[in-house]
Write a sequence for this structure.
């Protein structure tokens, strides 16, 4: 069986549960939407900005938050570039699915939602393992719910997740290059008494 | 999707983000001890802060996810627009929180008030450069020891009303100088302020300027240390939250643990980037107080203060850390007032 064939089989298996259990459907509809997980991840990042036992510790957290923003921007660019060279139709466009969400019109692969979620988680992991795990679980649920609700194939989520993690890795490796930008942002924050 | 429809969904999400963020700031303020972000008065138990924040977040989420399903399950703002609306919600909630917190702080301070004290009376005094008030015991027939008090310039003369009244009630007169005008704090002119005040006290028949103490708060404490070191006439001092090092006036989040946002802005502007603190060099002058007693008081929550080290202190010095207090309002804490009164009663 080809990778695409396995992907479709896995999609059918997961999406087959949709509409079968109303409680699970409600939970997945909470995770699948464009607001719940992204808002939670943003608030976690905001909390990270203000946390830290000492000024130095806080500065390291603030650098991580700036890195998250940069990683998300980079992940978006990578996804757009992928979309320019390859278009994969959404599951509901090519087969019968249990659709619990609206019908997005952009390319299915890679998943932008997973890319953003795992960009957060990747930088979070670099700064603090527990934060990385929490953000990773949220990003994973975000991705899983997208498959469950019929808007993505599993491979889209894996590809999107890899885009996000790759972006986080690139930003992490460029820390020295980005240091002046991070320092400037933190200095402005301090002048506004917010860093 | 039509532009109008998208704006509507964006606005609904902004309202959600605003109320969610109000709750978020309350939880953050409680967890991080950020006074400037707290809608609850200082000293309120942490569980009320967590409860308020959780309730706001829960209500906002219940409204948005429970009742706006048609908006949520239709094409909404793209990632950049999502971030814009979320950031605007966070920012507007932050501005609301900061303003409301300042108002709550003022109302609480006004509620505390000083009230009329039957055992003390006040007289306005002024010199060519500054104005002030002398707090006098009401009983007559003797010459009172006197304390010259310099408030934190960012807070003003009212912050020492309770302490000065309590000193007068206990038979010690107090001259409180209004140092809120920033032009008074130019170096080296500022060094003339306390000698000028002592000169004014020496001219009064009802005051015994041979039993003279100094009291200062914040930058006023640094000035008091400098003046006490230079003038042997000063018998004893109480300094609350002396700054001692320019690093104490760094801008940043730590200031918001101790004061409201607007106070922090004003405080930082008055301290001129720490230049005056460095010029006053109170840390060095502390050791020149020799055997004259000095009480140094800090609030437990003061993170920005460069606390005095034991090596810099003269033999007769004592340091007190007041639990549960920060820099702001330290002079009004009953524990601090009692300690200062007792210190001057013993040492003047």
């Amino acid at each position: 069986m080809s990778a695409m064939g396995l992907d479709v089989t896995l999609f059918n298996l997961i999406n087959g549960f949709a509409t079968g259990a109303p409680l699970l459907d409600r939970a997945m509809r909470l995770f699948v939407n464009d607001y719940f997980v992204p808002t939670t991840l943003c608030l976690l990042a905001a909390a990270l900005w203000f946390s830290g036992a000492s000024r130095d510790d806080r500065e390291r957290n603030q650098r991580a938050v700036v890195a998250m923003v940069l990683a998300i921007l980079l992940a978006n660019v990578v996804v757009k570039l992928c979309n320019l060279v390859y278009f994969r139709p959404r599951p509901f466009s090519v087969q019968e699915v249990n659709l619990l969400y609206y019908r997005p019109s952009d390319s299915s692969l890679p998943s932008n939602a997973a890319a953003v979620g795992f960009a957060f988680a990747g930088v979070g992991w670099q700064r603090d393992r527990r934060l990385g795990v929490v953000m990773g679980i949220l990003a994973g649920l975000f991705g899983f719910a997208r498959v469950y609700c019929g808007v993505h194939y599993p491979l889209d989520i894996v590809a999107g997740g890899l885009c996000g993690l790759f972006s986080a890795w690139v930003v992490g490796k460029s820390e020295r290059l980005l240091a002046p930008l991070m320092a400037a942002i933190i200095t402005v924050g301090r002048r506004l008494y917010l860093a | 999707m039509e532009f109008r429809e998208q704006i509507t969904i964006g606005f609904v999400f902004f309202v959600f983000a605003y109320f969610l963020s109000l709750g978020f700031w309350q939880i953050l303020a409680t967890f991080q001890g950020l006074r400037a972000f707290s809608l609850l008065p200082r000293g309120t138990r942490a569980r009320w802060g967590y409860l308020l924040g959780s309730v706001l977040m829960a209500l906002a989420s219940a409204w948005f996810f429970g009742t706006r399903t048609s908006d949520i399950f239709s094409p909404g703002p793209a990632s950049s627009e999502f971030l814009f609306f979320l950031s605007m919600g966070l920012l507007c909630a932050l501005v609301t929180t900061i303003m409301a917190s300042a108002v709550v702080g003022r109302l609480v301070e006004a509620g505390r008030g000083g009230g009329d004290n039957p055992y003390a009376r006040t007289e306005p005094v002024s010199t060519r450069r500054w104005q002030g008030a002398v707090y006098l015991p009401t009983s007559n027939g003797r010459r009172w020891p006197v304390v010259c008090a310099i408030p934190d310039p960012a807070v003003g003369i009212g912050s020492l009303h309770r302490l000065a009244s309590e000193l007068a009630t206990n038979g010690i007169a107090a001259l409180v100088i209004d140092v809120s005008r920033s032009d008074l704090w130019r170096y080296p002119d500022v060094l003339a302020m306390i000698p000028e005040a002592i000169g004014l006290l020496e001219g009064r028949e009802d005051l015994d300027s041979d039993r003279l103490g100094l009291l200062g708060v914040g930058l006023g404490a640094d000035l008091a240390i400098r003046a006490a070191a230079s003038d042997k006439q000063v018998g004893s001092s109480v300094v609350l939250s002396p700054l001692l090092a320019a690093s104490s006036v760094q801008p940043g989040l730590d200031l918001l643990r101790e004061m409201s946002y607007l106070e922090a802005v004003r405080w930082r502007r008055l301290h001129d980037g720490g230049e005056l603190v460095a010029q006053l060099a109170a840390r060095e002058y502390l050791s020149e107080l020799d055997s004259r007693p000095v009480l140094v008081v800090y609030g437990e929550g003061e993170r920005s203060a460069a606390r005095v080290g034991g090596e810099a202190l003269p033999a007769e010095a004592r340091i007190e850390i007041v639990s549960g207090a920060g820099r702001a309002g330290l002079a009004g804490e009953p524990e601090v007032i009692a300690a200062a009164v007792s210190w001057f009663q013993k040492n003047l």
User: Anything to note?
Assistant: Residues 3-112 of chain B form one domain. Chain B has a mean pLDDT of 89. The radius of gyration of chain B is 25 Å.
